[in-house]
Amino acid sequence: MEMLENLRPSLAWALLPSRRPEFVNQATKDYTGIQTAASLSDCLAVIHPDDVPLYLEHLNQVAAASQSCEVEFRVRHHDSRYRWMLCRTYPMRDRYGMLLRWVSISRDIQDRKLAESTLRKQEEEYRRIVDFVPACISVANAQGELVYANKVTVAHLGRLAEQIIGKGWMDSLHPDSLPIAQREWAASIRTKQPLDVTLLSKQFDGEYRWQRLTAVPLLDEKGEVMNWYMLGVDIHELVKAQEALEMSKHELTKIVETLPLGIWCTSADGQPTYLNQRLREHTGTTLEKSKDWYWLQNVHPEDREATAAAFMYAINTGTSYLMIHRLRIADGSFHWYEQRGEPLRDTNGQIKRWYGIAIDVDERVRTEERLRETRAKLARATRVATVAELSASIAHELNQPLTSVIANGQAARRWLGATPPNVKAATKSIEMILRDGRAADNTMQNIRALFKRESIRKSGTRVAEMVREAVRLVHEDSQRKNTSIECTFPERLPMVLVDRIQIQQILINLICNGIEAAENVGRRAQLRISAQSCVEGRLLIEVVDNGPGLADLNSIFDAFVTSKAKGMGIGLAISRSIAQAHGGHLWAENLPGGGACFKLTLPTT
């Protein structure tokens, strides 16, 4: 059995006299995909149904003949296709001649079978080729005189067959082609090698057309030429098309090489096959240096992993490729490039190659970055001004009642400290203190009412659409395009009754916080967002990040509490207020393996 196991790549198995499988080698298991064979039916299951009786009869023949026999049958490959096998079965007997087992060893003969089938078809075609092929077929003797010409040849030349037979095959050639034909024909006569030449031949209407002439010698047993079998194919339109194609190719090459952007081409598996001149000169690289994924060495280290992942995703899925990353240029510096690629498919939808462009967007990206920084500074200044203005307004509104409270308090102390104490006057001062306190309270109530969200436009909203739209808004930021955000939702989720815009404000805040948490510790942000029904009438949304986690879970939702160097600490406080205004709840938990999980519950419709 060890010998059978080592017969790779041959397939081998052993059957007991009861025809129950005794052993199947690993090569058979790998080939058929069946790992266990407990009965003969398990073995027969991989044989083509039409060939099962043939194999069973083969076993009987082996047993009767007492010697090995061969049989050909089809076996199902693990890819579900049947392939032809040549099987030799040996009867193994004990010293008394009793059958111990059958041992079958098989090898794949699919290619041979296909070749035999092809050969049979070719033989059939060859018998009809002379009568049906749309080409000039003729036979010439060893001296080049025609001894046979088919009807197409006769029609092409516009002569009678009697006028052609016995003549040289070069009689109809253009004067410019005659020297070429004589030279090549002399070489074939001398070497007894086939002739293959393109010539201008005159047809029945006097017009010369390009024709490809091939001639193959038939040799006798002494190696001498008996006849030449000749085939002439009209390729006039092809030659003209090739000339036009060469001209178009030349013009297209000049256009592609001079366009003010990089153009590249790869094979279906991503192997670079072409870089235009501008891309080569601007990046200082060559096609050879870009092969086998070495082009990634010119991508900025921080962008390399995301770029490779995006390109492989496009190749594996056949979707459009779009990536903005930094690329090393000829002077050694890095420029921002926008890469776009589209697949070229054949008529069956199979990708044949990829075409793409590389656009230098360095100035645009840096301008956008400066614009974002300016906007951020302006937003921070606006927030500071708003807080200052709000503080001044609150101080102004409270200053008068508080001043009166202090004055009346001091007066009451003086009235009570007099000898004797003036209780009546002190009582009046205390009443004025109470009056001013109520005035201050009313002022605070008015300020609180000012910031209350009195109108929330709730409507039935699909959670998956709402979340994906928020993710898309985050990805529109060029700095966050490559952030990995995985969304997982069950097929059937109840709709939530919310103000879509306000809940998306919460989601965007949580997503941005998660991205910044990961980036602050030098990690590539990876977020997971999921949703599920939790309790009756409630739906739970979870946002999980891969940051360091939260130091204080109790205070992060307090106003003006933040772990960011430039944050105001009001985002989570406002988010919780929005959730509560919707009848929901927002809280956070630290995960055992690191990272934080923010959980948001919302009422369903």
From TrEMBL:
Location of the Histidine kinase domain: 393-605
Domain named PAC: residues: 69-121, 193-247, 317-373
Assigned keywords, A-Z: Kinase, Phosphoprotein, Transferase
First-level EC class: transferase
NCBIfam families named in the record: sensory_box
GO molecular function (one): phosphorelay sensor kinase activity
EC number per UniProt: 2.7.13.3
Descriptive protein name: histidine kinase
Domain PAS: 122-192, 248-318
Reaction catalyzed: ATP + protein L-histidine = ADP + protein N-phospho-L-histidine
InterPro entries (alphabetical): HATPase_C_sf (IPR036890), HATPase_dom (IPR003594), His_kinase_dom (IPR005467), HisK_dim/P_dom (IPR003661), HisK_dim/P_sf (IPR036097), PAC (IPR001610), PAS (IPR000014), PAS-assoc_C (IPR000700)
Pfam families tied to this protein: HATPase_c (PF02518), HisKA (PF00512), PAS_3 (PF08447), PAS_4 (PF08448)
Organism for this UniProt entry: Undibacterium terreum
